Amino acid sequence: MAPSTSNPFSEITIKLKHSYTTTQWVGLFFLSLLLGCNSSEDPVSPEEGMNPGDEIVDLEGVALTYRNQCGGCHGQDLGSFVEREWTYGNSLEEVIQSITDGYADNGMPAYGSALGAQEIEDLTNYILTEIDGKTKAMLEAENPDLSGLITSDDLTFRVETLTDDIPGIPWGLEQLPNGEILVTERGGRLFLVGNDKQLTEVTGVPEVASQGQGGLLDVLIHPDFENNAFVYLSYSRVNPSNSSERSTAVARARLQGNNLIDVENIFTALPYLNSGQHFGSRLVFDNNGYLYVSVGDRGYRDVYPQELDNAIGKIHRIQDDGEIPTDNPFYTTPGAVNSIFTYGTRNPQGMSLHPQTGAVWEGEHGPQGGDEINILEAGNNNGWPVISYGINYDGTTFTDLTELNGMEQPVYYWTPSIAPCGMTFVSSDFYGSWRNDLFVGSLKFEYLHRLKMNGNTVVGHETLLDGIGRVRDAQMGTDGYLYVVVEGPGRLIRLVPEQ
Predict the structure, then answer these.
(1) What is the C-alpha separation between 377 and 15, in angstroms, rounded?
(2) What are the residue numbers of the active site?
(3) 3-class SS at 338?
(4) Rg of the chain's alpha carbons, rounded to an integer?
């Protein structure tokens, strides 16, 4: 595959300007983790939007620092701070203590020795002052008006809102053959959006460990759903032997009306770890009926992704019942986890099947820079963390290598990061020149990013629906339409071409 060694098509206006100190970078990164263990809102992890090196030219002051450095994770409107329960308290003293001492069990390091006391207090004061008296309804009223016709490079379309009442953080979506749509909510609820646009909660969801970036994640139906009614859910699961440990798991169930029955866990990415980050996780079936499961590195960058004796930082390939295909690349490798299909992966929150080639494509968060799109081929090493186009959040490097023999180059990468979450190829004739292009959600910049494709090569790009909210997933429906789910508010939309 032809690597992208830069981002020649980028029109992102935020430029890298190293006008801030490393100490300030560290402090801003910490704020992105501060609310990470609250189960009702965004985990606020760096790869979900914050890049401490992305600085707008000549802007000064803590308010503008927030806008440039923290807004991608917490919302440019401070949305993730509004109407929420703060796990460690929201008084000035409690927030300062959190930043100073940290909470290692939830991925929040202590920065008392790296960050000045006044810097901590100034940024904390700004956030608490700005959110005073604000409500979610007030923030939602400021969303852009997308009610009219929208003109893209190649298509005029309109946005149809199916619902904007999804509570919490919607994460994944899947359309059923009858037109109804399943939507996961990361807190642990599964919803069915009816053809009448009414929202109904589905019962029978397995117990979910909703903490940090964990929770109820992706949803997928079986290729033969009309005959077997199988629904698959990826989620963070508690270790039955140690309640402080969690892992990415996959459950299979049958959908009967508004209920899941015959629920069984068919895959668990071992080992369980005491970490609340980088679970992944997307699900996709290939044309041969194999199920692919993406699993992040869980924050253990230097421990698991490059080793085959664990399931962490890998893409797995299993049968529809959880059994392992005997032709998997490491099936007979001594000591290897035999479900592994590819390895060397950071935090993969996007997967999609190419409509022409049938290849599985994967998208993942980089650290500061280096978000990637990869084509998955059996046995490939995608390089994390040995090679990367990203750097640490404090501006330091963890590797000097961007390529190495035996490790794959991405098809495309973003610098600065867009925080990609959810992706799909357009496979319908409804969309004209969009057909076979790749659409990726951006958490940081709150838009849908279109990658214009020529075969496996990105030849251009376009941003759509700017400011719509943090885009969590984009999927082609069984009816041939493109569906997108966003947070702030929890909204499910359909893109309808103007005929």
Answers:
(1) 34
(2) 278
(3) coil
(4) 21
